[in-house]
């Protein structure tokens, strides 16, 4: 059985963070593990509290996992401060896992900062170069490329700028969920731009879409798919979960991961 590790924050309401990641892993029939970076008190309406674990505790979690059940892929999500970012980078350099997917979580769908302002530079300079793929949404890609993105060509341009900053070694997937007309994602990998077209689904319940997509990519890489196939399959997963139309909570609700179990029974 393939094994996948998520290093991310906990969302007590189950829509995003490690809860979304573990649900995605279960649906992909891989063995899921989680190193928690932060506890969040949040629901579909907002984030009401954040309590980071200490760097020593995160180091302990990562040692426990890597020394015992070595993952075939690693997904990294919310890591709110520089010390935690450095802790993860140290362990990745020590254990050298393959298939690292980094979702540069900066701001939640509900508008709360999940990355301290001073930590952006550490995320970019210390953690991103260790990743095989990073998955910014449009606002995150704007920050990373220092560009404004208002059309498809600018998604390609921004992905190239980000890729160059990472010496071209890391694939860049600019997600199009924040474009109000389409839902096309752009993969820039090995100096080639590939579009993954998605039908725009009329569903405001998008809490956890980024977490879910990056975990699904990690699962697919663990299952030995190449990068483009991993993104293509992950895109099918997220589209299906959105289309299912689950509607929970008073705000932007979570996805239904169980749909995948039904269609793959
Ligand atoms: N309304 C939608 N219809 C179809 N796909 C969507 C929709 N919203 C988001 N997606 C897809 O969900 C994934 C996550 O994208 P996005 O919402 O941009 O990321 P984030 O959750 O990090 O903000 C992408 O594959 C994107 O295309
Ligand atoms: C613990 C945690 N990690 C990540 C997100 C971002 O998810 P989204 O942008 O889909 O709200 C979140 N809200 N909470």
For the structure shown, list the relevant keywords:
single chain, 265 residues, alpha/beta, UDP-N-acetylmuramoyl-L-alanine:D-glutamate ligase, 9 strands, 20% strand, globular, binds adenosine-5'-diphosphate, binds (4-amino-2-methylpyrimidin-5-yl)methyl dihydrogen phosphate
Please identify the structural class as seen in this structure. Answer: alpha/beta
**What is the end-to-end distance?**
18 Å
Architecture in CATH? 3-Layer(aba) Sandwich
Q: Tell me about the largest β-sheet.
A: 9 strands, mixed
Report Rg: 17 Å
Q: How many beta strands in the DSSP annotation?
A: 9
The fold-level CATH name is: UDP-N-acetylmuramoyl-L-alanine:D-glutamate ligase
Strand order of the largest sheet: 3-2-1-4-5-6-7-8-9
Spans of at least 5 consecutive residues whose pLDDT stays below 50 are: none
| SS summary, helix count | 9
Care to describe what's here?
The chain is built from nine helices and nine strands. With 265 residues, the chain is an alpha/beta fold. Strands 3-2-1-4-5-6-7-8-9 form a nine-stranded mixed β-sheet, with helices on both faces. A hairpin with a 2-residue loop joins strand 8 and strand 9 (192-196). Helix 5 (138-145) crosses helix 6 and helix 7 crosses helix 8 (227-243). It is globular and about 45 Å long. The two termini are 18 Å apart.
Topology:
Layout: E1 3-11, H1 17-27, E2 31-43, E3 46-52, H2 55-66, E4 73-76, H3 82-95, E5 100-102, H4 120-127, E6 133-134, H5 138-145, H6 152-165, E7 171-174, E8 185-189, E9 192-196, H7 209-222, H8 227-243, H9 258-263
Parallel strand pairs: 1-2, 1-4, 4-5, 5-6, 6-7
Antiparallel strand pairs: 2-3, 7-8, 8-9
Bound molecules: adenosine-5'-diphosphate (ADP) and (4-amino-2-methylpyrimidin-5-yl)methyl dihydrogen phosphate.
């Amino acid at each position: 059985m393939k094994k996948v590790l998520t290093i991310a924050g906990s969302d007590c309401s189950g829509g995003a963070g490690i809860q979304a990641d573990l649900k995605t892993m279960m649906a992909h029939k891989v063995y899921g593990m989680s190193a928690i970076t932060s506890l969040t008190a949040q629901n579909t309406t907002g984030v009401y509290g954040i309590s980071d674990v200490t760097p020593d505790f995160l180091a302990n979690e990562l040692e426990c996992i890597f020394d015992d059940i070595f993952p075939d892929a690693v997904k990294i999500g919310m890591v709110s401060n520089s010390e935690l970012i450095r802790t993860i980078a140290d362990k990745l350099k020590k254990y050298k896992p393959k298939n690292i997917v980094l979702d540069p979580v900066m701001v939640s769908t509900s508008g709360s900062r999940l990355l301290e302002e001073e930590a952006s530079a550490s995320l970019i300079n210390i953690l991103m170069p260790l990743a095989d793929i990073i998955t910014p949404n449009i606002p995150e890609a704007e920050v990373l490329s220092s560009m404004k993105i208002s059309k498809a060509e600018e998604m390609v341009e921004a992905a190239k700028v980000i890729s160059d900053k990472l010496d071209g070694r890391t694939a860049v997937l600019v997600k199009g969920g924040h474009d109000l007309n389409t839902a096309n994602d752009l993969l820039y990998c090995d100096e080639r731009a590939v579009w993954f077209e998605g039908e725009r689904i009329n569903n405001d319940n998008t809490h956890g879409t980024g977490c879910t997509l990056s975990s699904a990519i990690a699962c697919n890489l663990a299952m030995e798919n190449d990068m483009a196939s991993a993104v293509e399959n992950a895109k099918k997963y997220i589209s299906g979960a959105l289309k299912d139309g689950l509607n929970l909570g008073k705000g932007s609700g979570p996805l239904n991961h169980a749909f995948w179990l039904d269609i793959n029974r």
